[in-house]
Amino acid sequence: MRVVIVLAALCAVAVASRLSPIPADKCGADVITDDQDKIFVFALSEDSVVWYKFQKEEGGWSLWRPVADRKKMGSGARAVRFPNGTMVVFARGTDRKFYHTVMTNINEFSDWSLFGPEEDRDMTFHSPPVPVITPAGQVLVFGIHSGTHTVWYTESWPLSSGQLTFGKRANLGGQEATSSPSVLVDAEGLVNVFIRGTTRCIYHLREIYDYPGPKAWSEWEGLGGVMSSAPAIPVALNGVNNLEVFGRAADKALWQRGQVAQQAGDSAEWSPWVSHGGVLASGPAVAVNDDGLAEVFTRATDKAIYYRSQLVDEAGLVKYSNWRTLGGMFSTTPNVVVKSDGMLFLTARGVDKAIWYSYQSEVNGVRTFSSWKTMGGHTRKYPC
């Protein structure tokens, strides 16, 4: 604990030799909603094929179906949905190259294919692809290059007529990464990238835009910490549109650091790291509910899922609840999404290799989670 506190505000100078081993979190599924707010779940099966399952309009779930042409993949899928409802799924192949497939019709996908200019398609990556949709209707795809160990990305043109075209990949340089990037579009429509560096501290890079000039990237800034997981950021900003970063530190507790801004100021600063305790066996999954408050989920050393919620007390101060358990026996980091009604939907891979889920509902103003229910499947865990 003392080491974490001493280094929480610092990022030590990266040493020439890579720290080894550095823990890597494992995931079991990716979840997305369609334009009707129905849930789609993607998982990597034991035959290394990405399969998916979806909620049916008449209720219940579909059977598991293979995505596209059953190409063998080395990572699970990451799915995004464009404003027009088009769904695109990305994955890393067994050859470590990035592939994508587009939903061409209702529950039908094109064959997996490489994307980007011809000269970029043979690039290989350590991490799964990490896509994010911008307000302009473009998708940016990030990954950790297997040669440079730095973040590379490519940006598409806005989707039109079902054609998805990507520009040349670019190296964001600076820091070598020991985690997949975590990516978020902020309230100004600018992209923010977070990684864990070779010294286990968190680094942050952001897009900057001084009108009327072009967009550019800032320098990497060190946010400190001694992390044993990748940074986790909410899929939405907090209630005042500031960024918050969470991670499992070297003491296995949950730590958090957030932006703060003064009303009269012209920029946001970062608060000190704060420990939220716990004994975590995986990195956290974070979502922001419809009240603008964070909900943090993780797997503990007893293999159950635990969560902690932000709340506002009678004095108007924002605090966190105690840790509460949802039970279960799981082998991966959980995944959480926020539905359009503000309710949370949670998935994780069980010790039986199946995907399990729990959903939130509200009765008389009180929100509770259902018991765990199985989706079945024989899935593999894969690096997050």
Top keywords for this entry?
Neuraminidase, 5-stranded antiparallel sheet, mainly beta, disordered N terminus, 384 residues
Note down, in words, how this protein is organized.
The chain is mainly β. The protein has a single domain, classed as Neuraminidase. It has one helix and 34 strands. Strands 6, 7, 8, 9 and 10 form a five-stranded antiparallel beta sheet that branches. The longest helix has 6 residues, at 2-7. The radius of gyration is 20 Å and the shape is globular. It starts with a helix and ends with a strand. The model is unreliable at 1-9 and 13-20 (pLDDT under 50).
Q: Report the β-strand fraction as a percent range.
A: 35-45%
Mean pLDDT comes to: 89
CATH superfamily: Fucose-specific lectin
Tally of separate domains: 1
CATH architecture type:
6 Propeller
Summarize the structure.
The chain has 1 helix and 34 strands.
List the helices and strands and how they pair.
Layout: H1 2-7, E1 26-27, E2 30-33, E3 39-44, E4 50-54, E5 65-66, E6 78-81, E7 87-92, E8 98-105, E9 108-109, E10 113-114, E11 130-133, E12 139-144, E13 151-155, E14 170-171, E15 182-185, E16 191-196, E17 202-209, E18 215-217, E19 221-224, E20 244-248, E21 254-261, E22 268-270, E23 274-275, E24 285-288, E25 294-299, E26 305-312, E27 318-320, E28 324-327, E29 335-338, E30 344-349, E31 355-363, E32 366-369, E33 373-376, E34 382-383
Antiparallel strand pairs: 1-34, 2-3, 3-4, 4-5, 6-7, 7-8, 8-9, 8-10, 11-12, 12-13, 13-14, 15-16, 16-17, 17-18, 17-19, 20-21, 21-22, 21-23, 24-25, 25-26, 26-27, 26-28, 29-30, 30-31, 31-32, 31-33
